[in-house]
Description:
- The chain is α+β, with helices and mostly antiparallel strands and 180 residues long.
- It has helices at 18-23, 34-42, 65-81, 95-100, 144-152, 157-161; strands at 7-9, 46-48, 52-54, 102-107, 112-116, 126-130, 138-141, 172-175.
- The chain has an eight-stranded mixed sheet.
- It starts with 6 loop residues before the first strand and ends in a 5-residue tail after the last strand.
Amino acid sequence: MERYNLKIIGEPIEFGNINFLENHKFKNSKPFPSSYKEFVRKYGYGRTLGQFFIYIPMDDYGDSWNVRTEGIKNTYYDDLMNNSIWFELEPDADIELLRNLVPFACSENGFYLFWNPETENGGEFDIFITDFNGLGFRKAGKTLYEVLEKMTNEKYYKDIFSIFVKERFPNMFECLTKWT
């Protein structure tokens, strides 16, 4: 899939900690996925598709990847370790996969995006989506741009959301700063 372009509302000015973006390694020594790094450098911090916050490295800022990833993990990780799962894993996940997943985005209406750093597709990680409710965990795509294109495409958004979303998301990125 080619690079996907979002309509930008405003002017991107908050790009976070680029040094961290370029040098971070996951526990398996892999860097951030290429499409994510490109997204951060092009768009920066903001609201994607009218609802999603794709967390970028902004050190200790509340919406930072550094903060939100750990916060999201903490909502389910203890339950995972104790085999007390309170949410659906099917159709595309199991306990083993869930242990590998790393959250990196959340929507205002409760959808979460996760990478599986244990996959590698030419510098990319498989992406999964859940709402920790009826949606279960679904494989959404192999790159961030593929997922965004599916979510905004009339023909493909139901492949990700099934019956849980009634219409495609708008193809837009609203620029924000840490102070808005």
